[in-house]
Write a structure and sequence with these properties.
Elements (H helix, E strand, L loop, with lengths): L5 H4 L2 H11 L19 H10 L3 H13 L6 E6 L2 E7 L4 E6 L7 H13 L3 E6 H4 L3 H16 L1
Parallel strand pairs: 3-4
Antiparallel strand pairs: 1-2, 2-3
Length: 151
């Protein structure tokens, strides 16, 4: 059909389906996460943070993947100017693992937590010294938070 665009040659049902997919609807109505363009350097910074994870972050990452596959946690996700250690979009839950430096920056952490909560997420924090010796205890606390979020 000369002079007819591809969009015009689609049926009404096909055009409606394409419009839904553009809005974040996936195949058969599955919700897909839409990402906005990130400022320059954001993705490379997140990758660097994942590569430089602490022992506690690595241990918790393995525990999250093993115990909560349905929550689909992600590591070092940018939220505004901050990076969440672990984030479940589905559960709207951010998990932070804090080392000794956080003793000195409690005000910064409070501002950061308020910002993340203002974006609609719940934030829970664990110390490295909680995660490493007792990962099962941390997993149990996370499980309680995930259950509480369903209510």
């Amino acid at each position: 059909m000369p002079g007819v665009s591809v969009i015009q040659s689609l049926s009404l049902r096909e055009r409606e389906g394409a419009a839904q997919r553009r809005k974040g609807e996936g195949y058969k109505g599955a919700i897909m996460r839409t990402y906005h363009r990130q400022p320059s350097g954001t993705v490379s910074r997140a990758r660097q943070l994942r590569r430089d994870a602490t022992d506690a972050e690595r241990a918790l990452w393995l525990a999250l993947r093993e115990n909560f596959p349905a929550a689909r946690f992600r590591r070092q996700v940018p939220i505004g100017p901050y990076y969440a250690d672990f984030l479940s979009f589905r559960a709207k839950l951010v998990i932070e693992v804090d080392g000794g430096q956080h003793d000195l920056q409690s005000e910064y952490d409070a501002v950061r937590t308020r910002f993340i909560e203002a974006q609609g997420y719940r934030v829970i924090r664990f110390w490295n010294s909680d995660v490493l010796p007792d990962p099962e205890g941390v997993v149990n606390e996370i499980s309680l938070c995930l259950e509480a979020g369903k209510e």
